[in-house]
Amino acid sequence: MSVFEELESVTRAVADAAGPAIVGIGRGRGWGGSGIVVAAGQVLTNAHNLHGPEVAVSFADGRKATGRVVGVDADGDLAVVAVDTADAAVIEWADQPAALGTIVLALANPGGVGLRVTLGQVSATGQAFRGPRGRRIRGSIEHSAPLTKGASGGAVVDRAGRLLGVNTNRLGEGFYLAIPADADLRSRVERLGRGESARRPHLGVALAPPQAARHLRQSVGLDERDGLLVRAVEDASPAAAAGLRTGDLLVAAGDRSLVAIDDLHDALSAAAGSTVVLRLVRGVEESEVTVTLGASEEAASPG
User: Fold this and answer.
1) What string of H, E and C letters represents the secondary structure of 206-248?
2) Whole-model pTM over 0.70
3) Number of domains the chain contains
4) Of the candidates 167, 197, 227, which is a domain's last residue?
5) Largest distance between two CA atoms of the chain
């Protein structure tokens, strides 16, 4: 068998094995994405593919059904939809993670217009990108299997059709990022399927990029400082209750210096208990405030 014949054989075999577990989300290319049947009655997709509590789901056999969003992790760009999957196949998870150089296939059904299967290779692991709300998603698989618009939420699989990752982000120049199908993802999917939407520490501030803080302080004759500039404080939020104001420069959270927004995300996630001590500069005066954190929970409708 020639190399080309072997590629054809592998592609057809993967389409037969994993294709029935790939569904369309939404109504047509440009109006939705893709999803994966991960259990009877449950479809996994990206949170950014959803626009309300109900979603149109198109199955490989042409059947269409209306699903209900039961669990959302908007920062992690994941969601589980409850829907009648009937006899649709459930994807099999790979036993081993994707490694550099692994041959992979990407499967999608963009908005329900039909199955797409492409071939590529893992070009990097342990990559990071920004989720829909700006929080960094780490540990991603970078691969070169071409994806069309509407392919996010579809599967990256190995040559046996077993799930290696969930396609999520297009890098451009022919590379794509997928959330790895590891034990952590399995646990998150199970929680979302039970209706346990993600909960994360909630501070209640809008922040300007660090360079904006430096430029603003320089423009009013203040010494430059690394930090995060508060440009808005949410009413009745933990930040408001602690006395934070627009214009405050957050320079540390606990013992962690705040140079980038990710530093604050990491500090809040690592905060022991429900409080965090923030060090701030207001004008030329430096002080500390203790913030009692809230917990933000995603609603079933991300729209």
Assistant:
1) EEECHHHHHHHHHHCCCCCCCCEEEEEECCCCHHHHHCCCCCC
2) yes
3) 2
4) 197
5) 75
